[in-house]
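The material for today's practical consists of a large collection of protein records. Read left to right, the backbone structure tokens trace the chain's path through space. An example says more than a description, so a record of this kind follows:
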Amino acid sequence: MHEPAAYDAVADAYDRLLPALDAEHPQDVVLLEAFADAAAAAGGDVVDVGCGTGRVARWLAQRDLAVLGVDPSPAMLAIARAAQPSASFALGTATSVPAPAASAAGVLAWYSLIHVPASELDAAVAELARVVRSGGVVLAAAQSGSGMRTIVGAYGTAATLTAWAHDASTLAAAAERAGLAIEASVERPREGRERMPQAFVLARRPLR
């Protein structure tokens, strides 16, 4: 989440291409539903870190969750606010979330950690863990693998983005180091137009 200017440039195109959850694989939606149900049971307030144009935030709000969307791109946030004027959105990154410690029932990082290099992954996951309260859950998704890749012509624009792959075992290990208990660690093979397999980790802050 270190490229706000690049994401400002692709915001409109991103919103046209990905207006909702239609592009998500059914298995991925099942994980989002498990996260939403667990967050509802833990209090119902969620922080969507790397919310972009708010497509997942809108889906969460439709499930009666109170959502704070966080993103480093002002242009992305402007689209999110216009579509959901009653919701809360704020500038922030995965390593600096504008939310108090232990303030959320759920913290979501849905493909936002792909913009965190491996050297900063522990700090980012620790920040997600800082925000979630006892009994709350964290869900992270990323393209699975390791190393950096350059995305040229991102979302059909002239913009170039940098992304890092993180496999499920790496995400899970970072979550455990941050004091979270792993509830699910999933590697899904690539399908359709996907270029890489996908990684998901659902973790919980243990009750105290």
In short: The first strand starts at residue 45 and ends at 49. The first helix runs from residue 4 to 17. The beta strands are 45-49, 66-71, 88-91, 104-110, 132-143, 148-152, 160-164, 181-188, 198-204. The chain is about 35% helix and 30% strand.
